[in-house]
DUF5691 domain-containing protein
Amino acid sequence: MPDNLATPETALRPAADWQRLQRVVLLGTRQSPDELPAVPGFTLPADAPDHREKQALLTAGVLSTIRKAGYQPAVATASATAPAAPETQDALGVSGAQLLQQLLDGQYPELLPEFLVALAENQRRVPHQLLVMLLEHARTRSQLHRPAAAVLGQRGAWLAAQNPAWQTFLAASEQATEETAWETGTIGQRTLCLETLRRREPTHARELLAAVLPQEPARHQAQLLDTLQEQLSAADAPLLTHYLAAKSKEVRQTVLPLLVRLPGSPLLERLWQRAEPLMQLKRSLLSKKLLVELPATDWDKTWLLEGIEQKDSRFPGEKAALLGQLLALIPPQRWAKHWNLTPAKIIELAADTEWTELLLTAWSEAAVLHQDIAWAGALLEWLHAQPRKKAPNLPVARLAAALPPAQLTALVLPLLNATPHFSTDAPWQHLLQLVPAPWPETLTRRVVELLRRALRQPTELYRIQYAASQLLEHMARVVPAAQYNLCAEPLQPLLQDVPYLHNSLARLLNTLHFRQQLAEALHEPPAPG
């Protein structure tokens, strides 16, 4: 189209004019009050017969041609963006880039987070050609923001800054600043920024938090206050104590666990003064007995000042809830020192009372809160020591997470040896799937042998199908890639003999092989770009 047809006064707007023309035509050229869009050089005389109908058709033809041929937009007046800084880390090699693309295409999605973490640990970055794909893939997956931000490199960070939809990665980066995230970010971005700042400058992070909290809604207050878990110290006590009296239960329940974890916490001492008279150990020459009483007075607001709510779903009954909450907040090791007894002995005494469920549930919560390894181990050992018709409903997964992996493995192996077969009541089945990665070779070898023996009995496959498939899925995530041969040699020959479990077994072996390739790719020569 000639240049003289597009002046500042008559500049074409093909997209907007096309929408306007559609509205006129849909309503009818005679019924619509809107003016037809004017295309310079293609305007019929106003006195022509059927002027609006003919003008609408002519305009539609012209605009359609413009839309098909393309339209040269006005020259941007914004200043040029500075180029990305030079890269400081090596990119993945050719094989690594191909494997990463497979992960981003949706193959083995559970392996992507750990591979990104491994990339960062090995000082490697994502190749340039995969940056957009990674940014777009991780954009809606908050669990990938931090590991992805660590491997973007200079060009990836530059790209993320150009697109508002990708700027969450800047907030997740270790180099995040208050300017990029704290002032204008979403609550998720601000939380990430505060966590990062808390690791570097805990005092400054607390000052920022204290200044902004009064203006935040309660749900945001709770989320932001939870960041004080990073570098928690006695200096945080005044801020936490202030929000212990908040109107929102969510806020109170966020700061309470932090306050009782502070060394020398005055709150903890007040809780102990309430709890100690209710728990008495009666000693005789040959035995010991635990005597438990409920609080003599009903709940009132003085309890709330110490973080104790009127009701708690973990402990049925109002007064039982008061005692349960007290025990759940006090470090359980304090009882062991107070009575000069081991956790195992105290658990035995508690099991002989009418308050077994309450006591063991509360002490389990306390062991998790204070990360007490001795108590967590003793509770799990007691729970799995023998079959129980009505075992307390303890938070087994959280207790297991409180144990070092080696100690949890040492707890599981004897259970495996004592019941070396699949069954609905095998005490090791649930606990085994709580052992985190990476499994030691001794555990993998024992489980593979158990699986091999079970899978060689075709008549039993239907009975163990669900339990075995769950175990195989878990093993695909936690068995180290280096143990691929340890699994493949005994199990691969069975693939054709296990129709009920063929897919789960094949996925285990394929996943371990793929992870083996990922591990090797971390050390291959870098590719350009």
Observations:
- Residues 240 and 259 are 7 Å apart (CA to CA).
- The mean pLDDT is 88.
- The first helix runs from residue 14 to 27.
